[in-house]
Queue: 3 jobs
Job 1
Amino acid sequence: MLIQILGTGCPKCKQLAANTEAAANALGLHYTLEKVTDIAQIVSFGVMTTPALVVNGQVKVAGKVPDVQAIKGLLT
């Protein structure tokens, strides 16, 4: 599973990455976490507000930081 965090490295982006890692680990998933900070790449996903969570190429959430429990639902 490829999980991507889209954002420039702001505190919300870091929190989304931490929550996502916690959720994936709690579920026992085998995943690769990639942080995408290039604005052109972020826009190529159709995302205009960061942070955003992308799972296997599909944008799951943008512009907010869901808690660990909500992210578990997005990853399954």
Job 2
Amino acid sequence: MSFRKIELSELSFNPFEKIGKEWMLITGGTMEKFNTMTASWGQLGVLWNRNVLTCYIRPNRYTYDFVENGDTFTVSFLGEEYRKALAYCGSHSGRDCDKMAETGLTAAEFDGAAGIEQAELVMVCRKLYSYDMNSAGFLTDDGIQAQFFGSDPYHRAYIAEIVGVYAKDNK
């Protein structure tokens, strides 16, 4: 499968559908060593006059170390035919299994970062800023903490500039 590099301005999709309903794979690391995880939380927008993606990773996730220790990571958007693979990558740890072997997904290199070969769209993201979420940051008491955290650790947020966009070349 081949990809072509496109301009961010060529994209036209609903980010609420793309991230929240279709999901994405966040992949940290290089082709030599990487891990990927499914995410359905994130934002796309403009900050500091840059096109950015914000994603959230709990520190107990295996992918966290790869994203934390690298300068870049990728987000890959796959078609509906990969829903089972996305579900698997969101419910199993790369510490305990080989997600690529278990799902049939394969890695590909995008500007030096590992991404997913079967993706329809891959964004290469360069980390700009991170912060740790915590209970003191909540301004309402409408059940979010109880529903999404409980005994799980709070996420680290990564604000990253989108420095490359690759679309599946259907030629």
Job 3
Amino acid sequence: MDRAQKEKVVEELGQIFESSGVVVVAHYEGLTVAEMQTLRAKMREAGGAVRVAKNRLAKIALEGKPCEGIADLLSGMTVLAYSEDPVAAAKVVEDFAKTNKKLVVLGGAMGSSVLDSKGVEEVAKMPSREELIASIAGCIGAPASNIAGAIGAPGSNIAGILSTLEEREAA
């Protein structure tokens, strides 16, 4: 890899560290190519990506970035998982690590907050952006349907009373 390629990699990694909602660092020693492809596919489905880069280049890219504190985690065979959604990458990596013991979560960063492995696990337990939007939409829609039911209830009660009175008069 020549100097120009290294500069390009550092620039790409810098953009990743700056724009991602969460970055997870893990050791992947012993993973087969097929297992790594499975991890990449799951991450793509969740809206994230997986990147393997030289630790030295990643440390250079981290300089001056909000998540600079994760530089200490970059040693050995490390993989970076990242996503704009602050929860997606953590969820995918945690799920994959449960089924594949060769992937060991070291920690990560969420904005300027550096996370240890327990922190990444806690982030993975949080609801994703889509789940939060769905629950907020449900909360917003529930009062409207309750109001519509309350407004319609007196009318249906009156109609029921009138039909009962009609039946009595007819009898």
